[in-house]
Amino acid sequence: MELRKIGKFIAERRKVQKITQEKLAEMLDVSDRAVSKWERGICMPSTAVMPELCKILEISVNELFCGERIEMKDEKKAERALMEIAKAKEQTDKKLLDFEVIVGVAIVMMFVPSIILLAYADMQNWVRAALICILTIFVVVVAFVLVKIEQVAGYYECKKCGHKHVPTYWATNLAPHFGRTRYMKCPKCAEKSWQKKVLK
Ligand SMILES: [Zn+2]
To answer: I need a labelling partner for 95 at 20 to 30 A (CA). Which of 4, 6, 34, 158 fits?
Structure first.
């Protein structure tokens, strides 16, 4: 923090508002000397008077700390950039969840006929058992990967308090579920509920 810059800025804004040091001190219920100290960059206004000071000078707390006016345009720009990042994440998450469904359905559609085929195929029993084992391990591994995708894409929403969170992988995997709605503990209110998957 550049105290001198901030001090100069306070003085400048005070003059813009056509207020004397004495008047400002009176409005904030502090001594004249305190105001003089801020403006000379000797110390910062205390947090107790900061909100009122900003109101009088018509600046934001952010601007006070920066020691300069922050253009509305820049604030809007920053806000828009943040919104775009959030939107991009939402779209990626949606694609991930679509991918989870496609792979999930494909796996089930492949697994069931394969098992039936293997059951009736003419082969030695140990070969049959080995193939079923390999197939099952493959499906389990894919299922674990799909849960990982589901865990990181979007958030789970607590039914009790509305808090949105990303649980750990094992908390997600071990939770009972219907589709993507999982029965889990909320990290905020500590209540257990059926938490829906949400993207925002
Ligand atoms: Zn909660």
So the answer is: 158
